[in-house]
Structure formats: structure tokens, C-alpha cells
Design a protein that fits this description.
The chain is α+β, with helices and mostly antiparallel strands. Helices cover 30% and strands 35% of the residues. It folds into 2 domains: 3-96, 3-Layer(aba) Sandwich (Aminopeptidase), CATH 3.40.630; 123-265, Aminopeptidase, CATH 3.40.630.90. Strands 1, 2, 3, 4, 5, 6, 7, 8, 9, 10, 11, 12 and 13 form a 13-stranded mixed sheet that branches. Helix 7 packs parallel to helix 8 (231-239). The two termini are 37 Å apart. The model has no long low-confidence stretch (mean pLDDT 96).
Length: 272
Amino acid sequence: MTVTQSAVTLLQAADLPKCQELALDRDWPREDVKWRLLFAIGEPYGIRVGDSLAACAVLTKFGDIAAVSMVLVASRFGRRGLGRQVLTHLLDEAGDGTVFLHATPAGRPLYESLGFAATGGVVTCRGTASGTPSPATRAATPDDHAAIRALDRRAWGVARTSLLDRLFLGQVRVFECDGAVAGYAVASDHGVETVIGPVVAEDEAMACALAVDTARAAGGPVRVDAGVHAKALRAAVEDAGIAPVRTVPLMARGPLPGDAAMRFAPAMQAVG
């Protein structure tokens, strides 16, 4: 069987190390936490050539929308159309709903050729936040989970139950307004750094307080993927010691539902 004849198949848990090897082959980090999350809540697909994994990508569905991530082709199988093949398969699996992704410079031409268009993006910021959390926010309790789920659904237009169930295992902070939860942020330990996100709030002042306080409570190196529209948020995290590193475009096929003005930072670029 030639490479171009190889089928796209659904990967299994035993394939996770092969995906990580593929990532390392393309000079991506190993990212154990991210890969385990994606295998748990998403649908990982790949193209096998003999005993090797030649390409992979992950589709994570939330109702009528789906995120595409980890589109990787082994360097020795590059420029043979495998990226297009696996991505086309994912789009077929996604059906008629909106599909979105955060694009690398290398992948953007492929995504544009398949109908994706830029619709915002994020500025990746890294550093260690100075100071201690302010009284404006507080640590969430299980009693807040229903309100957080409702807030997230307003922001995204769909229920992201599988993702939130796992995010609740991290450090969660909330902002209250008139006794009701009006914003939330999560700190997830990814080993080398803590990822701050999602940051979802009814206004940017709340988002600023949540992002900075959550970063301060985490301690140590953090990462915030701040929305390109959120200039005040980026200024707030930079003032706290978390500096911008690069900008990554968000691309979509179709309109994203929900209230985009409430979405200040994703949980991670792989899932939104």
C-alpha cells in the first residue's frame, strides 16, 4: 500500500505515544496533559504506513461546533497530501456544523484552501505573575459549577460538558456581580507551565481581574492565550509580569455561535 492509498482511521489510546513522537518530529513539545485531554474528549485520527504513524489530527465536538487540532505529518512523509487527506476526513466527520482551529503559519494555506477564514485570534503571553489575588475574585466551589456551565454556554452557544468536567479538576476562580457568577477562569497544570483559560466574563474588567488573580494563585510560570480583541486584558497580564510572545490566528468554516464578546481566552488553542 502506498502512502497516498493509506486510509484515515480512528486512533486508540495505545497510539498516544506515537502522536507525541510525531509532534517531537515536527519540533513541537510533548504536551502530555494536552494529548491526554484530547484523547479523552476528542476523536483522534491518523494515517498509518506500516508500523509508523504518518499523520494525525484531532476533532473535538461540542454540539454543533467542532475544534480541529494537532494536525501533524511526519517529516519523512511531507508534501504528499497527507495533511489535506486527514483534515478532509475530519471535516467530513464534523458534518454541517462550524469547524474552527488556531492556525500555524505552515498550515494556514491548507486551511484557507479548504474554506477556513480568519476570524480573530489570540496573543500567547507567558511569564510569572507578581502579587497575590485581589478580593475582586474568589476560588470557586462545586456549588458554582452550574452557574459556570451556564455562563460558558452563553459564551460559546453550546454545552461544553466534557471539557468543563475536566477543567473543574484544576483551580477555578469566579467573579461575582450582585451575588451571581458573572465570570470564571481556570488554571490547569501542564507541567512546565500552568495554562490560564478559559477566561469567560460579562465584561473585560472582570476578565482582567480573573486572569491576573488566577495567574497569581497558580504561582510559577503561566500562559494566557488572550484574545486579540482584548487589549485591556493583554495590558493587565503584561503589567502582572506575563509578556506577549506571538499572535496565532483563529480560523473557522462557518459562524461561531454564542457571545464572542464574553470569550477572552480559550482553555487551550486545541479546544477553544
